[in-house]
C-alpha cells in the first residue's frame, strides 16, 4: 500500500514560518553534520507531518487531508485519514516473520502483540528491536513514515516491564530516535592515564558506590561477587552475556538501565584473569605508553 507522504512533506515545507519553528523544536541548536543529514532528515520529515503542531494546533497530515491540495482520489484520502486517527510511534520487538507478507511484533510501550503487513520488511531480520510508526489502515497494521531504526537486541520480560514503566506518560517520537543516534555517534574521550595510586583510589570509590546503590535496589550480590565474575570471564562471550550472568545472580535489569556507567567502570578498572591479572584500563595504559 503506497501512501503519498512525499506530497504531505512538500505541502508542509511550503510554510517556511512553521518549518523554522519545527527545526528549532526538533534540533535545538545542535543541527546535524553533513554526513548525518541523509539519516536524520527522513526522521525529521516524519516527525514534522505527524507530531509537530502548527500554530493552529493541528498536524500537517491532518490539515493535508482536509485541504487535499493535490486532489487525491477519495480512497487514498480516506487512507491518510485513517493514518491520522490510528498512527503512533513506538519501540517494537520483532518476534517472527512471514516472508513476503508480514512481521509479528510486540509493542514494548503497551505490551500488545500485533501483525504488521510489510512485504519488504518481512525479508529482513525477524528478531531485534525497531523504532517505527504503525498505523491501522483498512483493518491492517502497517508501518508508515521513515525507514525503521533497527537494533539487534531483544529484552527479557523484566526489561520489557521496565521499558513500559519508563515510556508511561511519555509521547515517544522520531525526535527520541534522533537523540539516541546522536548519543551513539558521540565519540567518547579516551580515559585519562592513571597512576597505580589513582587506580586504587578509583576502585575504592567504585566499591563504595556499588555498595550504596545495591541497597537502593535491595540486591544481595556483593561487590566481591561481581569482581569474581569479572575476573573469571573468558572472552568467549559478549559483554551482554556477562549482564545475563549477573541477572542470574539476582541483579535486576533496572539496576543496569539506571547505572550502566557504574558497571562499565567496574569492568574496566578491576583485574581479569585472562589479562594476566590486569584490568582493561591498565592494559590500555601500557599500550598508550
State the main characteristics:
five-stranded antiparallel beta sheet; single chain; alpha+beta; 289 residues
In short:
With 289 residues, the protein is of the alpha+beta class. The chain has helices at 5-13, 16-27, 37-50, 60-67, 74-86, 157-167, 174-185, 196-216, 223-231, 239-248, 253-258, 260-269, 280-288, and strands at 88-98, 102-107, 113-117, 128-137, 140-151.
In terms of per-residue confidence, which ranges show pLDDT below 50 for 5 or more consecutive residues? none
N-to-C span = 59 Å
Strands, count: 5
Order of helices and strands: HHHHHEEEEEHHHHHHHH
Alpha-beta classification: alpha+beta
Question: Biggest sheet: strands side by side, in what order?
Answer: 3-2-1-4-5
Structure description:
- With 289 residues, this protein is an alpha+beta fold.
- It has two domains: 5-183, no CATH class; 196-288, no CATH class.
- The protein contains 13 helices and five strands.
- It has helices spanning 5-13, 16-27, 37-50, 60-67, 74-86, 157-167, 174-185, 196-216, 223-231, 239-248, 253-258, 260-269, 280-288; strands at residues 88-98, 102-107, 113-117, 128-137, 140-151.
- The protein has a five-stranded antiparallel β-sheet, covered by helices on one side.
- Strand 2 and strand 3 (113-117) form a beta hairpin.
- Helix 3 packs antiparallel against helix 7 and helix 8 (196-216) packs antiparallel against helix 12 (260-269).
- The chain is elongated and about 75 Å long.
- The protein starts with a helix and ends with a helix.
Amino acid at each position: 500500500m503506497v501512501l503519498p507522504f512525499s506530497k504531505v512533506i512538500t505541502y508542509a515545507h511550503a510554510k517556511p514560518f512553521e518549518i523554522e519553528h519545527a527545526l528549532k523544536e526538533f534540533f535545538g541548536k545542535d543541527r546535524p553534520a553533513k554526513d548525518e543529514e541523509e539519516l536524520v532528515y527522513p526522521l525529521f520529515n516524519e516527525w514534522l507531518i505527524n507530531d509537530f503542531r502548527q500554530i493552529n494546533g493541528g498536524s500537517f497530515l491532518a490539515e493535508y487531508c482536509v485541504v487535499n491540495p493535490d486532489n487525491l482520489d477519495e480512497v487514498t484520502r480516506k487512507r491518510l485519514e485513517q493514518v491520522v486517527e490510528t498512527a503512533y510511534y513506538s519501540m517494537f520487538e520483532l518476534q517472527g516473520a512471514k516472508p513476503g507478507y508480514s512481521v509479528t511484533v510486540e509493542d514494548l510501550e503497551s505490551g500488545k502483540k500485533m501483525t504488521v503487513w510489510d512485504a519488504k520488511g518481512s525479508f529482513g531480520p525477524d528478531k531485534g528491536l525497531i523504532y517505527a510508526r504503525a498505523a491501522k489502515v483498512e483493518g491492517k497494521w502497517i508501518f508508515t513514515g521513515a525507514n525503521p531504526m533497527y537494533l539487534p537486541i531483544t529484552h527479557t520480560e523484566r526489561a520489557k516491564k521496565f521499558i513500559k514503566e519508563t515510556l508511561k506518560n511519555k509521547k515517544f517520537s522520531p525526535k527520541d530516535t534522533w537523540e539516541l543516534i546522536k548519543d551513539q555517534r558521540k565519540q567518547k574521550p579516551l580515559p585519562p592515564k592513571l597512576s597505580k595510586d589513582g587506580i586504587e583510589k578509583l576502585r575504592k570509590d567504585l566499591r563504595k558506590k556499588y555498595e550504596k546503590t545495591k541497597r537502593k535496589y535491595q540486591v544481595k550480590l556483593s561487590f566481591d561477587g561481581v569482581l569474581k565474575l569479572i575476573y573469571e570471564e573468558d572472552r568467549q562471550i559478549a559483554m551482554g552475556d556477562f549482564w545475563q550472568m549477573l541477572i542470574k545472580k539476582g541483579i535486576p535489569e533496572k539496576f543496569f538501565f539506571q547505572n550502566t556507567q557504574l558497571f562499565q567502570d567496574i569492568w574496566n578498572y578491576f583485574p581479569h584473569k585472562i589479562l594476566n591479572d590486569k584490568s582493561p584500563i591498565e592494559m590500555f595504559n601500557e599500550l598508550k605508553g
